[in-house]
Amino acid sequence: MDEIGLLFIDHEPTSEDKSDMKKACKSPSEWLKFLCRDWAVENIEIAEATDLKFLAYKSYLKGKLSSQLLCRISIPELGREDGENIGSVDFWKTLGIQDEFDIRFIISQVEKFCALYSIRNLEDVAILDEATLEAATNAAEAATAGLTVSPLHNFLGASLDVSVFA
Asked: In angstroms, rounded to a whole number, what is the distance separating the alpha carbons of residues 63 and 139?
């Protein structure tokens, strides 16, 4: 995928683009430059400083965030009964971004990215395209055509006769 010259929201991603983004691992400054290009240009010192702060904060991650982790730590959890934000603002503050408006802007860009590339989409199992899903469904239906699973049909096999329990 050509990241130069295109904003991530300037085109509809292909299934290959989505797959690539689900596997992507970048430094915080790379994510900021990709998701918030104009903000990163205007705030280059802050954006570049996020890498060292992140490395000091969570050194075991070797300075890289996967797209999945980026989405999980940036987007407030939905459906929390107490309405408490569980850390998205604090994460970006820890990396040196202090302005609340900037933080909200970054979070909104991460939300768009996650939605567009189906990063947190629980229905998008195994990164399969529609044709593959349809073929798998058709194969499963063909394989089970005419089969009935019921205690009355002795699905346990010949060695386990359920009629003795009746």
From this structure: 44
